[in-house]
Amino acid sequence: MKKLEQAPRYQRDDNVKGKKTGEFGCIWKIFKILPKELKVLDIACAEGFLVWLARKGGLKETDGIEIDPDRTERGFKHLNLELQTADIFENLDIIRKYDVFILSRFFHNIGEEKSDELMKRINRKRNYMLIIKYKPGMFKENKQKRQPLATKEGLKTFLDKYELAKKSFPQQVIVAAKGKYVPLLKELRKGIAEG
């Protein structure tokens, strides 16, 4: 299995070890509002913090897939999660089992070509929802411009290709939906302000 060299970036040890949800408060609210029977897959879940959070929010059928075994081991150690250690692109068939896909700061890491490959497979489904967390601001801390798929506008443009209904929420979150899940966007908006 492929081992990643970089340290976890979007899931700080505070989150994983201390189970601190502040950075993901908006996603927590989304999990609390979504129908509990939905089946959720966190793609590139790292230690599985959002899997843990979804389960705490009542979404019992929530799984994660992560390529780095060190991260899935940390998820087991600190969050008591059994996550799938695998490459999503070698396991695209699992997509058919799920209704909701979490993609936290992921698309920009794999680039547009791989993002299209993943979205084309997801978009075969008649009904689905995406919960996407992106990077804050148009510029990195070093003043360099962010890649388009790391930004709100870049992601919205990318998702337009798939004709998805979408809403923006606080804390750099976009929720997109297709088919019977589109009305859920209005339910989420009733409980969570625009971001």
Kindly describe this structure.
Helices cover 35% and strands 17% of the residues. The protein has one domain (26-191): Rossmann fold. The longest helix is centred in the middle third of the chain and has 16 residues, at 107-122. 39% of the residues are buried. β6 (165-169) and β7 form a beta hairpin. α2 crosses α3 (49-56). With 195 residues, it is α/β, with parallel strands linked by helices. The model is unreliable at 3-10 (pLDDT under 50). The chain has a 7-stranded mixed beta sheet, sandwiched between helices. It has helices at 13-18, 25-33, 49-56, 69-79, 107-122, 152-160, 182-191, and strands at 40-43, 62-66, 84-85, 100-104, 128-133, 165-169, 173-178.
CATH superfamily: Vaccinia Virus protein VP39
Corresponding CATH architecture: 3-Layer(aba) Sandwich
What helical percentage do the residues reach? Answer: 25-40%
Order of helices and strands: HHEHEHEEHEHEEH
Distance between the termini: 38 Å
Shape: globular
Radius of gyration: 16 Å
Which fold name is given in CATH as the topology?
Answer: Rossmann fold
**E-strand count:** 7
Helical/strand content category:
alpha/beta
Mean pLDDT: 89
Count of distinct structural domains:
1
Strand line-up of the largest beta sheet: 3-2-1-4-5-7-6
Helix segment count? 7
Largest sheet: 7 strands, mixed
How much of the polypeptide forms β-strand, as a percent range?
A: 15-25%
Low-confidence stretches: 3-10
CATH class: Alpha Beta
